[in-house]
Amino acid sequence: MAQLPNSLEARDVAFQLHSYADARKQEQTGSLVIEKGEGIYVEDVSGKRYIEGMAGLWSVAVGFGEKRLVEAAARQMEKLPYYHTFTFKTHGPSIELAEKLIEMAPVPMSKVYFTNSGSEANDTAIKLIWYRSNALGQPERKKIISRMRGYHGVTVASASLTGLPNNHKSFDLPLPQILHTTSPHYRTMKKDGESEAEFARRCAQDLEDLILAEGPETIAAFFAEPVMGAGGVVVPPDGYWQAVQPVLKKYGILFVADEVICGFGRTGNMFGTETYSLQPDMMTLSKALSSSYQPISALLINDTVYEPIADESHRIGVLGHGYTGSGHPVAAAVALENLKIIEERDLVGHVREIAPTFQKRLAGLADNPLVVETRGIGLIGAAELHHPAHSDTPGSLGAAANAAFQENGLISRAMLDAMAFCPPLIITDGQVNDLFDIAEESLKKVAASL
Predict the structure, then answer these.
(1) Count of alpha carbons within 13 Å of 190, Cβ hemisphere only?
(2) What is the pLDDT of residue 6?
(3) Average pLDDT value for residue range 254-279
(4) Average of per-residue pLDDT values in the chain
(5) What is the pLDDT of residue 3?
């Protein structure tokens, strides 16, 4: 990328360390500098327009440039630009948003704890689970199980939950109390001759075997996304959740549903918990909660979780945990307005209407010789790529496809060699076709180059 002296691109290389990037490669190639957005589109500093096929980072539900959210932020900035929720203090927006989320919850929940990112929400969940175990006089019940390829964040604790090697390498992770069980990806994890139903039952058996090997009395909780996101958009096989949930109940293990990506309409219901008939004890929310116009996340807990924690905080005299920005009034006000838009415009119903077109076009990518599998639900999906020339360098084919997409005006995300699609919920039928037209043409060019 050509960089003019003192340009934004050059200054970015000079001063900023980026997430999920090769820092040395960053020095050579620079970054795509996005200047503005409208609807499903963003525009870079040169004026080139792109379909934002990832809704930013799985998150901009109502699209870019929604003036109602800008106005909600401005109103709250003028009234009360900041206050906290420490030491018996609070403010209107956090109260109203907590009440709204409890009303919206697909299963009975008792309290909301606000954080600033999905990582923080899952990190807080871990701390509260450990706090609860001590409150119940079960200090040995501290181990937590998540799944290979699951994604739950990047703090020390939440990155330990994340079941992706590059989130552990050179960070000395995962923590020893975090365990991982089988990923529910049928194509790569099935045994010869194993049906999808048999695979789902084996996943549940693998989970139970791990619990028994570790000792059920030592296992506190199980974390899982209804549909795995950053691990490659892994849609669970039929019967998976029906097999897994009874195992958790059998051994009194808390279930934490990570709804950071699935929540607020992505799977065709307000929550992935509804799509898969889940019964979690805790839920973590972020991203589409405010369409990421403001950083905010939330942890919802039921009474089974809350009551021992409340008792323990009374015994000690304090719940010694908190973030400066927890329940930030501007972020909460924006989230409230965002949820109003989702409901008023029936974006969940819109997802159900658009999903057949989206999933049909996604499946059509399998006509390309590079595509070995497509998978998805609602308005989320992925196309897995493979070519013998790239077998020894996982991720290189995905990087090539990602570059071709971007050159042709589509922003996607390569998760190694799986190309993800997760556009704003407001996308239209025509725009879905535009998105996949670009993807098809780009993949043809990559295939021809090989």
Answers:
(1) 14
(2) 85
(3) 98
(4) 97
(5) 63
Q: Tell me how far apart the 2 most distant CA atoms of the chain are, in Å.
A: 68
Tokens found for residue 383: 């196309």
How many percent of the chain have pLDDT more than 90?
Answer: 98
Among 235, 217, 302, 228, CA closest to 260: 228
Picking from 152, 164, 58, 148, the residue whose alpha carbon sits closest to that of residue 394 is 164
Distance CA 143, CA 157 (A): 12
Long-range contacts of 85-89 (CB under 8 A, 24+ apart): 85/114, 85/322, 85/326, 85/327, 86/322
Please check whether residue 150 is in contact with residue 162, taking contact to mean a CB–CB distance below 8 angstroms: yes
Return d(Cα 102, Cα 94) in angstroms, integer.
12
Residue 428, amino acid:
T
Structure tokens at 292: 């990421």
- Render pLDDT for 77-127 as a digit per residue (tens, 0 to 9): 999 999 999 999 999 999 999 999 999 999 999 999 999 999 999 999 999
Structure tokens at 265: 């309409």
pLDDT (0 to 100) of residue 5 = 75
Q: Is 233 exposed, middle or buried (0-12, 13-18, 19+ CB in 10 A)?
A: buried
In angstroms, the CA 78 to CA 347 distance is 30
- Residues near 201 by beta carbon (within 8 Å), at least 6 away in sequence: 239, 243
Q: Tell me, rounded to whole angstroms, the distance of Cα 72 from its chain centroid.
A: 25
* Average pLDDT for 138-163: 98
What is the amino acid identity at position 238? Answer: D
Checking if the pLDDT of 308 tops 70, the result is: yes
Pairing of strands 380-385, 418-421: antiparallel
- Render pLDDT for 347-372 as a digit per residue (tens, 0 to 9): 999 999 999 999 999 999 999 999 99
- What is the C-alpha R_g of the chain? 22
Q: Is 261 helix (H, G, I), strand (E, B) or coil?
A: coil
**Mean pLDDT across 238-247:** 98
- Burial class of residue 398, CB neighbours in 10 A (0-12, 13-18, 19+): buried
In this structure, are residues 161 and 144 in contact, taking their beta carbons and an 8 Å threshold?
yes
Rounded to whole angstroms, the Cα distance separating 27 from 150 reads: 30
- Return the C-alpha torsion angle 281, 285, 288, 291, nearest 10: 150
